[in-house]
Amino acid sequence: MNEKQLLKICVSVAILGIGILFFLSKTAAQTNIQDITEEDIDKKLIVSGSIENLKVSDTMTMFTIQDMPIVFFEQLDIQEGNTVIITGTVKEYKGKLEIIGERIGSE
Question: To which CATH superfamily is domain 31-106 assigned?
Fold first, then answer.
């Protein structure tokens, strides 16, 4: 394989990778918590805000952001007042909406 062919392959793979990253970034756009409705059930969303009402057990971490319950089925090392970015799926539990967290990061 000569250098020109290798260069064409590298450029093609790079362009394809950028296209995939662009597509993935659009599949879960950041959402305002107050805009979440029952139509969003089972959708993956990104939300951000300040942690309130933190409860941590051995198997789960629960807190609220702007009165929206956020649940992670793992123990997280976070503190009330931290500002975080959550990626998760909207679910309904006992007639109320909540977000089942998949990823957490800081702003």
Answer: Nucleic acid-binding proteins (2.40.50.140)
pLDDT at residue 36 in the model? 94
All structural domains of the chain with their residue ranges:
1-29, 31-106
d(CA 95, CA 73): 20
Phi, psi of 52 (to 5 degrees): -130, 160
> Using one digit for the tens of pLDDT, what is the confidence trace for 59-102?
999 999 999 999 999 999 999 999 999 999 999 999 999 999 99
Please say whether the beta carbons of 46 and 87 come within 8 A: yes
CA atoms within 13 A on the CB side of 102: 12
